[in-house]
Amino acid sequence: MKNMKVFANWKKLDKNFREKTVNYGIVLVAFLVIQILSATGSLKNSISGQLVPICTYVVMAISLNLVVGFLGELSLGHAGFMSLGAFSGTLFWVLNCETLPRPVALIAAFLIGGVVAGIFGFIIGIPVLRLRGDYLAIVTLAFGEIIKTVLNALYLGLDSNGFHLSMKDTMSLGMEADGKVLINGAIGITGISKASSFVIGIVLVLITLFVVMNLVDSRAGRAIKSIRDNRIAAESIGIPITKYKMMAFITSAVLAGMAGVLYALNYSTLVAKKFDYNTSILVLVFVVLGGMGNIRGSIIAATVLTILPELLRSVADYRMLVYAILLIAMMIFTQSPKAIAWRAVMVEKIKARRPGKGKMKQGEEG
Which of 58, 119, 199, 218 has the greatest number of beta carbons closer than 10 A? Predict the structure, then answer.
């Protein structure tokens, strides 16, 4: 009886509230499980090393889902925003981690990374969001490659006279003897004092969930989804298309920039080639496999597909073959109309077996 009352009270709750609770619950339960495994020494080093990247890709997948799943626009430049946040936040961290209290410097690094990525999201969004479909995808892909190329050829130094910038080599910086090279072209930023941790990653995931889910459930979120469903109808009733597209695009860019900071501060070296178009495609795969507009699916897909190559390391010769087969199988299962219909039938059967379902039906018949 007690379980039936709990279930009845749970059903009375708002659907959006239930969805949010489940999503937060998945993240918190995963955190507790990892902490228990770590405390008991049951967590493998290979998996432990993947915890921060998992959190990074979860944030990336949720933020891209805001643009691809809820807004309905195909963006392939998410790695570009990630790299902008990574380099700007890491630069601040390298310059201030020894002078400022570490928590203050770390929070500021995340904020700076997010703000810089958001500013570029605004600048790029003004012309780009006037495009649609394949054209938008091509331009955003080009943006990501341009950012990677520029960062790969950038040299930045600091001495008593201030910052020095060059696109040629370190000798062209013209620094004094006390100067320090901050960005060394293709070598990137070196000597980073690592600061990212699984706890910080979980906090960023929770912040991302809070921002995206509350935006989606707000009036602005309903406007964003209406643009996805029917742009002409949304425009005909007075919804400012450009405003809400920019809102989704900039929010997504800010979160990607913060994910970039989390990723960068997990390593001692940061290079631009880590943020090529393959990264953007990988994040898009997380979104597609998890389901367009499905935040929970993005969390699960990003986690599974990030950790899967490590789990398959024991079959090193066939690892990528097995990975590709599983990827195709997941794609068929999540996107095939027959698979979707089968899942709907299974959900209905599960609902029919829930406690109190039969009594409700008897009461209705009586």
Answer: 58
CA distances from 223 to 70, 73, 85 (A): 10, 14, 28
- pLDDT, one tens digit per residue, over 181-239 is 888 888 888 888 889 999 999 999 999 999 999 999 999 989 999 988 888 888 888 88
Determine how many CB atoms are found less than 10 A away from the CB of residue 153: 15
CA-to-CA distance for 254 and 64, rounded, in angstroms?
Answer: 11
**Rounded to 5°, angle at Cα 271 from 269 and 275:** 130
Residues 6+ apart with CB under 8 A from 64: 75, 78, 252, 256, 283, 284, 286, 287
Q: What is the predicted pLDDT for the residue at 360?
A: 44
**According to the model, what pLDDT value does residue 351 have?**
66
**Distance between CA 299 and CA 58 in Å, rounded?**
5
In a domain, 136, yes or no: yes
DSSP state of 270: B
Domain count, the chain: 1
User: Is 83 part of any domain?
Assistant: yes
Token pair in block for residue 283: 């994040």
The verdict on residue 324 lying in a domain is yes
Instruction: Give the DSSP H/E element, type plus range, for residue 113.
Output: helix 102-128
Burial of 1 (0-12, 13-18, 19+ CB in 10 A): exposed
Does the pLDDT at position 87 exceed 90? yes
What CATH number should be reported for the domain holding residue 63?
A: 1.10.3470
Asked if residue 186 belongs to a domain, the reply is: yes
* Interacting residues of 333 by C-beta distance below 8 A, sequence separation 6+: 339
| Domain ranges, residue 236 | 2-335
Structure tokens at 319: 């690892």
Neighbours of 264 (CB within 10 A): 32
**C-beta neighbour count of 342 within 10 angstroms:** 12
Q: How far apart are the first and last CA of the chain?
A: 22
Nearest to 322 by CA among 333, 313, 334: 313
Residue with tokens 């469903």: 229
